[in-house]
Design a protein that fits this description.
It is a single chain. The chain contains seven helices and seven strands. It has 220 residues and is of the alpha+beta class. The strands form two sheets. Strands 4-5-6-7 form a four-stranded antiparallel β-sheet, with no helix packed on it. Strands 1-2-3 form a three-stranded antiparallel β-sheet, with no helix packed on it. The longest helix is centred in the first third of the chain and has 21 residues.
Length: 220
């Protein structure tokens, strides 16, 4: 009796194992890979990395950070299939911004946009001359007229000049036609062209770009 029971149990166990071995586990499908970033997404991220160019208020620190920030985002997407289209869009953005900023005399933006353009086109010399001009305007000394004095029939203008490169402030007493304020980079940079009206302003030439601008007289 016990032998029959044991034999029957063994047969049932073998049958269960046999049936179990015949069942195949269902295959687990792997989720499809995510789609590559779109050209719009890449372009937006590229532009955001240098968004200060469109917002304004550029500082020298902002300008210094543009190459690293833009290069980092370009490197992040450089192997993506839509990267060339996105980079081309940003390049067109910059080529539109540069003349707009130039015409508005926003020389910091001109400089920053050219720096960004050169990150995308490292072998280009397209904007070399304009970049030099932008540097000259950004480095133009800041002039404040502090007073006038007539000495033996000669009118002298007293001015305080701050050099943006060195942040050094110097004071001058200058006659019409006289050149003044020497810098290490450009040499003599300023010339007093004339006193305007009843000493309400003076016209000064910025010699590196050979262009005059008007500086108001002292505040009463």
């Amino acid at each position: 009796m016990h032998k029959v029971f044991a034999y029957t149990l063994l047969c049932m166990l073998m049958l269960v194992l046999f049936v179990g071995c015949g069942e195949e586990e269902p295959e687990v499908e792997e989720p499809p890979p995510p789609p590559p970033p779109s050209a719009n997404e890449i372009h937006q991220n590229l532009r955001s990395s240098i968004g200060i160019l469109w917002r304004g208020g550029l500082t020298q620190e902002d300008l210094d950070q543009i190459p690293q920030q833009l290069s980092q985002v370009v490197g992040q997407y450089q192997h993506e299939i839509n990267a060339p289209e996105a980079i081309g869009r940003l390049e067109r953005d910059l080529t539109e911004l540069i003349p707009q900023a130039r015409d508005a005399e926003r020389w910091g933006v001109v400089k920053g946009a050219i720096v960004a353009y050169n990150v995308l086109n490292p072998n280009s010399d397209r904007y070399n001359r304009l970049e030099e001009r932008a540097d000259m305007y950004r480095e133009r000394p800041q002039v404040e007229v502090t007073g006038f004095m007539d000495v033996d029939g000669v009118l002298y203008t007293f001015m305080r000049v701050r050099d943006p490169l060195s942040n050094r402030v110097e004071s001058y007493r200058v006659r019409e036609g006289e050149e003044f304020h020497e810098t290490e980079k450009y040499g003599i940079t300023l010339r007093l062209l004339r006193v305007i009206g009843n000493q309400r302003a003076v016209e000064i030439e910025y010699i590196p770009v050979q262009e005059p601008w008007e500086v108001p007289g002292p505040r009463n």
